[in-house]
Amino acid sequence: MTINVFATWKVKVGEIENVLSILKKVQDESVKEKGNLFYKIHQSNSDLNTLVLLEGYTDELAISEHRSSSHFQDLVLGKIVPLLEDREIVLTTPIR
User: Which three-class secondary structure state does DSSP give residue 44?
Assistant: First the structure.
């Protein structure tokens, strides 16, 4: 069963370029994952410090493997999260 992730990140003022630079590396590695279907980065039109990530995975195991990956652990949790004011993640299943 396909699972999509919607992650909304509010980036601290002055850190958006740093976050986007690191996030591009995360995206490059994430799309190589066996269970990854897509990894899209969006920036709010009304607030450039708000990013919305749309990710697709084949199943729960693929999400678990993504979250256990070195790029997620080192780059997202280690480098990006400290640069965020807020972070909200919603897992969804498409309604057919």
Answer: coil
